[in-house]
Amino acid sequence: MEEGRARTCVTGGTGFIACWIIKRLLEDGYSVNATSTSSSGDTKGMTFLTNLPGACQKLQLLKAHLTEPESFKEAIKGCIGVFQVASPMDFKEKEEDEEIVTKTSINGALGIMKACLTSNTVKRFVYTSSGSAVSYNGIKEDDDEIVMGESFWGDVDYLRTSKPFGWSYAISKTLAEKAVLEFGKENGLDVVTVITPFVIGPFICPKLPGSVRSPLYLLFGMFNKFCFEFNY
Fold first, then answer.
1. Cα 193 to Cα 39, 95, 110, 153, distances in angstroms
2. CA geometry: angle at 227 spanning 94 and 229, to 5°?
3. Where are the beta strands (DSSP E) in the chain?
4. Quick check: 32 and 10 in contact, CB under 8 A?
5. What are the tens digits of pLDDT across the range 177-217?
6. Which residue segments constitute the domains of the chain, with CATH numbers given?
């Protein structure tokens, strides 16, 4: 994504990972369209983004939601690259919730990709997947000889049967990533998927991310809190 440091789009712009992507893009001279579920132009409570260096000149906030994929068209218009970070996060562990989360994740991602095609400007689509789309495959965790790579996928049947913590999210990320790769192949769109593991570290967003909070329980000896968080 060189070409004169053009405009890019980052969906789910208020999240842990998305904030860092926005920050780095601005630092590298790119203009950024960041989407969130907040009203367009409503910067109240968004100062953690609007105060980033370069944001005044190069950052635009727009409203969009995965349940309405067409709402991303304006944010994608004129962009050379799209970082699809937005994702439904639902850990209620109910069968009906899994169906809704998966449908929203797939339809939202494919809708955004269709907008990329109609824009006639997007050259690369980067999809943020998850380590849960790889690790839950029925392989015994104590098998140290296994090195998981691109050929490994989460086993949907295994997930639905064993129901580990976050199983509905793992299913949605597994099936959505497969759908994204297939769509890119069929339509000639350059697609890159990124497998993110347990993400921890400094954060820009104002709320303590769950992926940061949970390991802090262990660091401070609050094992019971950690077990409660993950239903152990």
1. 29, 27, 14, 13
2. 50
3. 7-10, 31-36, 59-63, 81-84, 124-128, 191-194
4. yes
5. 999 999 999 999 999 999 988 787 888 887 777 777 777 77
6. 7-197 (3.40.50.720), 202-232 (no CATH)
